[in-house]
Amino acid sequence: MAKSFLDGYKTYDTRDGYGNAKQWKKAFNQRMSKEEAESILSRQQETPYNILQISPGATQAEIKKAYRQLIKEWHPDKNQHRSEEAEEMSKKIIAAFSMLSH
């Protein structure tokens, strides 16, 4: 059975807070590989740059900033009233970031 996008998120232990950036990055890298990102983006008509709303010449800092802003906006916890749409957008955003940051 294939893992869901949020399986890792749902099992992340937050009892002692949300952890530091290194812990989140490690958990993120374990959940979405470059191949999985390519698979998600191959079903989209948008480019990774369009998804993150940045120009093709964007720096790594600009890519990271755009990713953080969008993932915060579309996080499933903040969009419980439209969780399916939020999960799909989160997948696209994370896939785009994965492709541009590898």
Automatic annotation (TrEMBL):
Source species: Chitinophaga terrae
Domain of life of the source: Bacteria
Protein known as: DnaJ domain-containing protein
Ranges of residues in domain J: 47-102
InterPro entries: DjlA_DnaK_co-chaperone (IPR050817), DnaJ_domain (IPR001623), J_dom_sf (IPR036869)
Any Pfam family: DnaJ
SUPFAM superfamilies with a match to the protein in the record: Chaperone J-domain (SSF46565)
Record-linked PANTHER family: CO-CHAPERONE PROTEIN DJLA (PTHR24074)
